[in-house]
Amino acid sequence: MKLKLDPADEAFRAEVRAFLHDTLPNEVRRRSQIGMHPPHDDDRRWWNRILNDKGWAAPHWPTEYGGPGWSHLQAHLFEYECRIAGAPELRWQGLRLIGPVLYKFGTEEQKARFLPGILSGQTMWAQGFSEPGAGSDLALLRTSAVLDGDHYVINGQKIWTTEANYSDWGFFLVRTDNTVKPQRGISMIVLDLKSPGVTVRGIPTINGECSTWEVFLDNVRVPKDQLIGTPGSGWDQGKFLLGNERTASADIEKSWSDLRRIRRIAAQQRRNGRPVLDDPLFAARLNEAELMVQALEWSVLRVLCNAPSEHPVAARASVLKVRGSELQQRLNELMVQALGAHSLRVYRSEEAFSPDGADPLWPDHVPGVTVDLLYQRALTIYGGAREVQKNIIAKLAFDF
Question: Is the CB of residue 115 less than 8 Å from the CB of residue 64?
Fold first, then answer.
């Protein structure tokens, strides 16, 4: 792989940087850089509209569905520059997960109905896969969808549904047939979360926040034309979607942003009369982490560019998911180490984002760090637990 950008890519990156500099207000940058799950959704919806007006909302989508026609490298550069600049991170559930499923498996009517709202940010989506007793092994899911005339009647429960409170619609894996092999009886359906019979309830987590939710489905009637593909095809659609999610879960742009944030914190925090960044042991740990980020970035680019490999894409996506999630946890641990005693304060979202929350005893770089450290224990679980991913790698890449 080339280690230098072409002049055209350099010009592209300069264009993106100039746009971000001219468009992003400082208060939006600050809010975006504090934490993973902001206590409001206004910034992301606003930013989604801004990017859609420019044709940049879906970097990885084909042009026929509203993508900008960029190369994989340009899409990577764009997302990198957005993260470094402090732009709000757009919701994955619509743009990265259900959007590609719809344009690959959906009907023309479904594409026309749902894709524009995803691009514009007008419609926010929730992912309803995991259930109590059916997390990483989705073949065990029990939420049922029974055909009744022109509707499916859905009953069941979903759990760990990220930011369901902000979402307008959801995409759910449901069981439409109990008489066949478990994987063959699963279908994917989309539904309005304001439908009668839908109840959304928050799940408080260890960091004091409530970013994940339970969704209860009690005799929810959904038009049958909202089923994606044919009945029983949900397993293949789910694998396609999770492959996209696991590649994106490497979240290499966040890792680069976190490295910068660690250096800023370590340069300002003092220990034994000198900046933490000057401590040889801490500096060595930080340099080692940066080398890991560089290595992971090249691995991500190889997968995105479909570089030749003896291993299937699904196995490589699982590798990226494992390494990316572990690396993000490691970086956040370094951030907490740099804070030292300042990490003992856990800012709640409302406090961290408040314009009146300044405290001379607690520097501006403190909010969000410890809250994220606690939340990120889940990184090696959601999207497919690390242990399950290793089994996938062993089976697909090494035929164990």
Answer: no
Give the active site residue among 79, 81, 89, 245. Answer: 245
Q: Supply the angle between the helices 234-248 and 313-339 in degrees, to the nearest 10.
A: 40
User: No. of H helices and E strands in the chain?
Assistant: 14, 10
pLDDT at 398: 72
Question: How much is the CA Rg of the chain, to the nearest whole Å?
Answer: 22
* Structure-token match 């994955």, residue found: 92
3-state helix, strand, coil in the chain (%, to 5): 55, 15, 30
Q: Which of 93-97, 196-200, 202-206 has the lowest mean pLDDT?
A: 202-206
Distance CA 133, CA 142 (A): 9
**CA–CA dist 348, 389 (Å, integer):** 32
Q: Which residues contact 16 (CB under 8 A, 6 or more apart)?
A: 77, 78, 81, 82
- The per-residue DSSP string of 36-101 comes to SS-S-SHHHHHHHHHHHHHT-S-TTS-GGGT-----HHHHHHHHHHHHHHTPPPPPHIIIIIIHHH
pLDDT grade for 35, boundaries at 50, 70 and 90: low
Which CATH class name applies to 249-398? mainly alpha
CATH class of 125-232: mainly beta
Tell me 227's DSSP state.
E
The pLDDT value recorded for residue 110 is 98
Distance CA(205)–CA(301), nearest Å, equals 34
Residue 341 is given by DSSP the state G
Tokens of 260: 């910068």
For the question of residue 245 being annotated catalytic, the response is: yes
Q: Which of 42-56, 61-75, 214-228, 295-309 has the lowest mean pLDDT?
A: 295-309
- Ordered by start, the domain boundaries in the chain are 7-90, 125-232, 249-398
State how far the alpha carbon of 25 is from the alpha carbons of 85, 86, 269, in Å: 11, 10, 27
Confidence (pTM): 0.86
Q: Is 368 helix (H, G, I), strand (E, B) or coil?
A: coil
Residue 248 CB partners (closer than 8 Å, separation 6+): 92, 96
